[in-house]
Hints:
By secondary structure, the protein is an alpha+beta fold. It has 3 domains: 8-81, 2-Layer Sandwich (Double Stranded RNA Binding Domain); 100-196, Orthogonal Bundle (DNA polymerase, domain 1), CATH 1.10.150; 210-383, hpI Integrase, Chain A, CATH 1.10.443.10.
Amino acid sequence: MAINTLTDADCKRATPNNGKLRKLFDGHGLMLAVLPSGNKVWRMAYRNSDGKQQTAVIGPYPLISLKEARERRDQLRVKLIDGADLKATKDEKPTSAFTIDQAIQDYWAGRTDASPGYIKNATRALAMYVSPKLGSRPAGEVTRDDLMAVLRPMDEAGKSVYVRRTRMWMSQVLEWCVEHGHAQHNIASDINAKVAFSRKPVEGFASLPLNEVHPFMERLALEDQLQSVMACKLLALTWTRTDELRRMTWDEIEGDLWRIPGKRMKKRREHLVPLSTQALNLLAELKQRSRGSIYVFPNDRDGKRAMSENSILYLIHRLDYKGRMTGHGWRKIGSTWANENEYNADHVETQLAHKEGGVRGVYNSAEYLKQRRVMLQAFADWLMPNQGKE
């Protein structure tokens, strides 16, 4: 078996494998694990006295150099020869004084794969609920009961969704602690959210039945051509999410195609949206009104920012459809119409950006583009029959 196969240059250059864990082997079980976040940690694979495969965490790189990692590997191998159990007992605690607050800061600073908005939501939740009680505690000394004492009041306050997200975000931090030798076990993984926390009935986004769509459009037509009115129409014609539409920029429009970059999509994959004649007519009118902003729907007060996230919802409320319709409801309307008109389910789900991941999903952003173009034009002709002329 080849040993000491790695070099310092190998360790420095190592990057994740397309966002997945990558392992670089040095021999005698020693490996450098490159985490999806880009952080690196030394591990050693071995078999215990029962012959079961186990992994010991040596510590983070480059704090622990390649040379030192090899020395620690050899020390562990000697212990194994002497019959020692490398797994700590339940009564043993890590000696690291690395605190929960430090772990939160370091972990999320390394999440270059996540969007700024996602990181902001996660760190805000942890700062509000976890840090006040556990932030100064060593990461390896916090128990499951300690974490439940933080999460339980959130659940009792009716934050049934938020408490689950907070547990998930804390679990990610603690898993990072384990990988870097700051804790022996991820205690958040011991909390079964399905059992530990209450549930609220799942309520979808309000959406009109198909027989009420045209009366809604007739009411919408009575409004002046305000930006929110035109945004509501374009949302209906594209079946996109409200946030995707309000951040739409002019450089994303390529003829009769809207190319939404992956960083703005829920699943972080580029999405192509065919634009019907009605959609193009709306965009042409919006272009004439453009005040030089990069956004198709700029903020009324500051053209450097996008339209308010609640503009379309406030419009719907003003039309007296509060509780009956939402901006997101256009996605359900589009899906219902397409399925009732027997369009291919794959084409519908692709247009809604619901398709599964994998290599094919990542690289084939134009999937079913021709068929989706026909489908969206037919929907636009049904929705706005008098506005489809050039």
